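Hi Prof. W.,

I finally got the DNA/RNA-binding domain-containing protein prediction working! I wasn't sure whether to trim anything, so I left the full sequence exactly as given:
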Amino acid sequence: MIMEDKYEEVEETLDPLLKALEDEAVSGKGNNFALKSGDLDREIVSVLNIATSWYTQRIFGNFENGFGLEERLWRIFGAVLHKYRSKVTKYQKSGDTVYMRSSFDRLDKVLKFGKRFYREFIKRVVELQGTPEDLRPLMVLLKLEDVETQLPSESVVSRIYESVSYSLCRLGDLSRYGSTLTYNREKRDHSHARVYYRSSLTMNPSIGLPCNQLGNLAVATRDYFYAFFWFLKAQSVEKPFSVDNVRKIAMKIFQMDLEDLIKCPLGDFDDGTLATGVRRAIIKLLYSFVGLHIYDLFYRQNQGPVKQRNLTSVVATFKTVLSEQYANIPSSLLVDLSLIGPMLIQQTLAEDKNISQDEVFGLTAEMLRSMLEIGLLSFDGYRQSPEETVPTRLKPILPAMRIYFDWLVKLILHSDINYWEAYTSVFTILFRFVELLRQEYGFAFDSLTAVKTLSGQRALLALEEEKKTRGMVPWDGALNDTPSGMNAKEAIKQDTSKFQCQCLLFTAIELARLEQTPLRFDEPNQQFIFLDERSTDLSDENVSETTITSYNDATMATTYIKDSFSDDGDDEVVFKGRKC
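And this is what came out:
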């Protein structure tokens, strides 16, 4: 109650000052105006001083439960910054350079006040609560390396990360305000804001706020696709940001002319060396990918540009570009595409408790199926090049495949629904793909003991640990697909692609051991088997030889794909749109 009263007291004191700030342009000119505006600014800063002092005292008085107070304090800052910023933009639009310069200088004083406060706040956090070891590099960034501190108690470590991460985000906001509202029209420099946001995200990957702010930076530079990824990521964590920005940017992209989009930046996806044809292909891939997710977002309400009638063409474009150009597309982009689908499923289920997983699984299943098709086709003719240790065409998609496999195991592990009937074709291709990997590379680990270390309850514990330390799985490469007993660093040093293949084999065995899909692992013979979908009783004693398919011919893999998975096939994955 005291908190509520104090917040209302600050608001009551601040509101008339902000109203005066809004109306002051018509109350005077020249020196008289400057004197009045200076007095008003001092009053506003005085209120900010009182607010920061009061809230800081309460936050450190009960630090473990003080995050709500930190959010309230920023609301006060935000209200003040919004009013000062609106004055700058007002004079920018009117072309009044004198008052625009004056308004910017006034805003800059408030920004400097805020930056000083948040730096000092972080300093107080580490002085009073301690500094975790992996936080020390940040102290150098903030020039706080000389602060006397100690290791914190375990009970407050996560709270320290939460508090410092939030403060870094607000430092990023203050830097972003300053760089976007330059009165001399210099090139906007978001580098400081970007460093703050990324530091915040690194420290606490489970919150969506820094991702959303990085998306805002991308929008400011017309980097719409990169913004789309950041806004999606902001949704796809343990403490997600609002879905509104995803909807807005997706609609904007899909309604833009493709030729205009081709001129847009591509963020980290383009280092300036992409050929024109490859760049165009990437844009088409991203464009169709955005279309898929607009369908997923809006189809249930039958609104937006992607409806049932043109979904087929969007999917066809996506699959065509992916199959033709995937070898030229940066592997990091394929990883991002692979991450977004599973994360949207997680967020959809969190938003709508009445929707079942199978209603949102189809979109990502189609992407997984496309990757698997490429994986099978990549073995075609591979043995004609004996100098290759892994098919060249397979290498670009291996990191993305690891994400899909890891996600699939965790999805099914936490699900009580049957994916058998709707997605048998996906599991059929997956079976053939992993059998090819097994035949070609064998197991560089003990296929029995390696799996048992992360099966059952251990897998659940591993998933919970990933959520706590890395944000929502599988963001930021939080994969636990390295077989135990295998030296990952040494294996990567020898052959990264072969190591990635071993990770896929390991995850496939995990999937088989769940016994919730047609995929099984024959332990005595050390090979994968596939149960015919017509079998309804999956207990071991009731599985006859006629319901088990063993796959030992690599040549059949590419023939199967070419002959069986046309657009007219009976096994086509069914899309079911998302409820909004």
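Residues 355-359, 465-478, 534-580 have pLDDT under 50 and may be disordered. Does that look reasonable to you?

Thanks,
D.
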